[in-house]
Amino acid sequence: MTSTTMTSTTMTSTTATGTIPALPPVVERIYEDVLRRNAGEREFHQAVHEVLESLAVVLNRHREYTDLKTVERICEPERQIIFRVPWQDDRGEVHINRGFRVEFNSALGPYKGGLRFHPSVNLGIVKFLGFEQVFKNALTGMPIGGGKGGSDFDPKGRSDTEIMRFCQSFMTELYRHLGEYTDVPAGDIGVGAREIGYLFGQYKRITNRYESGVITGKGLGWGGALVRTEATGYGAAFFAAAMMAAAGESFDGRRAVVSGSGNVAVYGIEKIHQLGGTVVACSDSSGYVVDEKGIDLEVLKHVKEVQRARIDVYAERVPSASFVPGGSIWDVPCDVAVPSATQNEIDRDAAATLVRNGCRYVVEGANMPSTPEAVGLFREAGTRFAPGKAANAGGVATSALEMQQNASRDRWTFEHTEDRLEEIMRDIHTRCFETADEYGSPGDLVLGANVAGFLEVAEAVHALGLV
Ligand code: NDP
Ligand code: 2IT
C-alpha cells in the first residue's frame, strides 16, 4: 500500500518500489480512489500514479475533464474477466491455472493487447499492462483500444504438447470474449508464434470461422504479417534513433546494453547493430552475458529461438563472451540502455549505476521496466528517457498493420511494412516531444506520451457519450 508523509521540503509517497513525490491536489483524490478500489494491485497503482502525475497540468488547463470525470472513467476497466484454466501434463497430472483478460478501453477501437504467460501474472499486473496499453495504442494513431490478458501458467520446461493443451484450454473460455471487432489479443512474455498458433487453431475450431483478424502475431503462412516478429525491437531502436537525432547524435559507435533475450531484445539488438551501434550485453532470468565484440545474433537466435536454452549457452559457444550468473546487467557500462525484459527491472541503484557509468539514453523496450525512483533519478541527471508506452509501441502498431492486411486480404512486403513502422515511431517521438513542449516540460517524453495519449482517448470518450 501507499502512505503519504510530509518531509521538510515536499510531500512524498512510499510505495512498494520506493519513495516518490506525492501527487498534485487536482489528481490526488482520483489516485486515492484507485488505491481503495484496487487494493494490493501495486503495479497498477504505479502505472496510474505515473500517468496522473503528468495529467495534473492538463486538468488545470481543461476544466471539463474534471467535471466529466474523464480520468476516473479511463482508470476503470470496461470489463475484467477471470477464469479457470484446467489442463493435464504429459504424465497425466492435472493442473489448474488462472486466466485473465482485462478489456480496458474501447473508445478508439476494439480492445487490443497481448497475452502474457508467466508465473508472476496476477490481476494487478494485467491491469497495469492494460492501462498502459490504452495510452500506447492511442499514440500509434491506429484505431485500436486497449486490453491485456494472460495466465500464471509457467511455460518453462513444458513440452510442445503441454503448451498446446494449455493454450487450447485457455482459449476454450477466452474465445467467447474475442472477435475482430471486439477484442484482439497477441503475444507478450511467454507467448510467441507457437502459442499464437495453438490459440488461433482452437478459436477456429470452436467458432468454425477463419477469422484472421481475431489475433495478431500469426505465422506468415496463415495470416501473419511480415515485420510483426521484429516490430517491437525494431520500433524501440527507431525510437532511440529519433531521440538521438533530436539531440544531433546517432547510434554510430555507441555501446548499448539490452536486457532480456526474448522477442523484444533479439530484434532490438538486430536493429541497433544495423543502425551502427554495438550491443555488448543481454540477459535472461538466470544472468547476463557480456560480449565486447558485440552480441552475435545468429548464435543468440539459435540458442533462444531454436534450442530454447538458457543464456549461459551463448557464452559456451562464443569465445569472446562471458556469463555472469545473477547480478545486474546494468553494471555493464553503456551509452544507451534498452531494458527489454520485465517491469521494475531498473531500480534506483541500477539507475544510479547507469548514470555514474555515463549512460545518456534509456529507452524502454519492456513495459514499465524502470521504477518511479529510477525515472526520477534519470530526470535529475539529465539522462534522456523514453517510456515504454511510446518506445515499444511498434509491436502493437504493426499488429494493427497485420489487422489491416487481414481485413483487405492483402500482403505487404517487408520493406513497405518496415517503412511504415519507422514512420510511425518517428511520428510518436515527434508527438511526445511537441506535447511535452506545449505543456511546459520540454524534453520530458514521459509527460509528452501520457498527455498526448490521454488527449486522444479523452476526445473519443467524450464523443461517444456516457457509455
Ligand atoms: P519474451 O518472453 O520473448 O522474453 C522475455 C525475456 O525477458 C526473456 O529473456 C526472459 O528471461 C526475461 N524475463 C521475463 N521476465 C523476467 C523476470 N521476471 N526476471 C528476469 N527476466 C525476465 O517476452 P517479450 O520479449 O515479448 O517481452 C519483453 C517485454 O517487452 C515485456 O515487458 C513485454 O510486456 C514487453 N513488450 C512486448 C511486446 C511484444 O510485441 N512482444 C510489445 C511491447 C512490449 P527468462 O526466459 O529467463 O524468463
Ligand atoms: O505490450 C504490447 O504492446 C504487446 N505485448 C503487443 C500487443 C499487440 O497487440 O501486438
TL;DR?
The protein has 467 residues and is an alpha/beta fold.
Description:
The chain is α/β, with parallel strands linked by helices and 467 residues long. The chain has three domains: 3-75, no CATH class; 79-213, 3-Layer(aba) Sandwich (Rossmann fold); 231-391, Rossmann fold (3-Layer(aba) Sandwich), CATH 3.40.50. Helix content is 47%, strand content 18%. The protein contains 17 helices and 15 strands. The protein has a seven-stranded mixed β-sheet with strand order 12-11-10-9-13-14-15, with helices on both faces. It has a five-stranded mixed β-sheet with strand order 4-5-7-6-8, sandwiched between helices. Strand 14 (361-363), helix 13 (372-381) and strand 15 (384-386) form a beta-alpha-beta unit. Helix 2 packs parallel to helix 5 (123-140) and helix 8 packs across helix 9 (263-274). The radius of gyration is 21 Å and the shape is globular. It binds NADPH dihydro-nicotinamide-adenine-dinucleotide phosphate (NDP) and (2Z)-2-iminopentanedioic acid.
